[in-house]
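Reader question, answered in our methods column.
A reader sent in the components of a multi-part assembly and asked whether the whole thing could be modeled at once rather than chain by chain. We filled in our standard form and ran it. Here is what they sent:
COMPLEX SIZE: two components
ENTRIES:
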Amino acid sequence: MMAEMTVERPVDAATTAAGDGRRTTDEALRCEGLSVAYGEKQALAPCDMTFAPSTVTALIGPSGCGKSTFLRCLNLMNREIANCHVGGHIWFHGQDALAPGCDVYDLRRCIGMVFQQPNPFPLSIYDNVAYGPRRHRRLSRAQLDEIVERSLRRVGLFDEVKDELKKSGLALSGGQQQRLCIARTLAVDPEVLLMDEPTSALDPISTKMVEGLMRDLARDHTVIVVTHNMQQAERVSNRTAFFYLGELVEVGPTKELFSHPRERRTQDYLSGRFS
Amino acid sequence: MPNQDAMTREDEGLRLRGARRADRAATIVLGALVAIVCALVAALVFYVLSRGGAKLFDLSFLTGRPQQFKAGGGIGPELFNSFYLLFLTLLISLPLSMGAAIFLTQYAPAGPVTTAVKTAIETLSSLPSIVVGLFGMLVFVLFFGWGFSIISGALALTIFNVPILVRVMQQALEAVPQGRRDSSLALGLTRWETTIHVLIPSAIPAIVTGVVLSAGRVFGEAATLIYTAGQSAPALDFTNVDLTSPTCPWNVFRPAETLAVHIWKINSEGVVPDLAVVSAGSAAVLVACVLVFNILARVLGRALERKVTAA
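And here is the structure of the entire assembly that came back:
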């Protein structure tokens, strides 16, 4: 799949992208003046943020603060909403994802997304995972088997379901379904993984599994996760960004942000003075 | 103030008791309304079947030719015509309405044009069927010169059926959880791939149920066909495969009276001595077929639902 990408891949860690020279080695994704408006109403004020490779970044803030809107910009899911205007730049491998020529389908393959509700397709477990790879390129049965097994192993689901891969994905438990959805996303081999409150519909045990998975995936992926659970942000993330009223208030290393927030609004939110 | 407290508590108690009484009353009234509806349907079905039910098992009636003047006519050609017309109607209207429903739910930008189209489809679905029939006569029978024929009838029935199918399919597609669609798009798939591989399989149980129910409606439709497919049933010869011959059953340019039209015709201008028996028998066959369609819709819908969702 790598070969057919139109999005440029890093050939060598030291290379910077041609022309603009904007990309450095320690950034996987960078937003510059990224703003979102629904019709006339601004949902996100222009903000800048850089995501380093192999890190987990948590986006926190009260409901309606723009964090999910921000997340959905990163793989252009906002394009599916009529009336939604995205401004600024999203630099990914030296290319602006928001530039007119950018192929949204290629971009989404490189920047995968997991949603709040576990939502397997009404297909078998095997077909759920094989769904993306099958659509994107021709694969032999053996290659496909290999991808399915690797993806399911990666989320720790393979041993639980290996004897019933033909069973419907909808017959699994909620936590298993969510891990299946993560496996489905991993099967197309993305670099960046966006997660929109991935554990808010799960029980504590499944939540713990998914959190462990996020840490594990961050070894070779850039993970960006929206969460309402501040303990979760503290547990899993390297960096945390706080959004409030459609504005990125502050972003920094998680420990620092939780112990010494620079902004008054962050401090108030963390101490529960407003929500 | 203990006194006042007691009073509020008493008020509260009264209010609760009132609400409970209202709830009980509503249960009884709603139950009675449902009972009336059920009784109506049951009485109708019972009446039709008790008068003509015996004919359901009379093979010579089911396959025999209708008679013009003598007693003992059958409904063979009419029964065949009904099914053939239904088949052709679905053949034309299924792809049409599927395409329209996919476009309206997945592609059409929200705007005045889309709203106008949706309103038009809704209006079309409540058009009186005799109006559709007369329109079909003007356009297909006269303007295109196809005469009273199966093709004219099938196209008129398509106009009658498409709006309903579009609505059923639209609702089925819209009922697919948004996250499922988003997940597919987020994997880098196009809208079309998402529609074909995720949305339609998710919506298929509801779509099948809707299609079979609409088939029941089409099967029993008479007014649309009187002036399009015609009121005569030429004798059919099932060994004849010459598609241009009027006796070839598959010839779409031959006139074809259906079962529903047959009931209307013998009752309005029939001269056969046993017209009451023929009419009752035809009605029983028609009702039985529609019942089978409805049961089939439920069974198929449930079976597909189970296949799609569970183990």
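What stands out: The mean pLDDT of chain B is 87. The domain at 58-309 of chain B is CATH 1.10.3720.10 (MetI-like fold).
Send us your own complexes using the same form.
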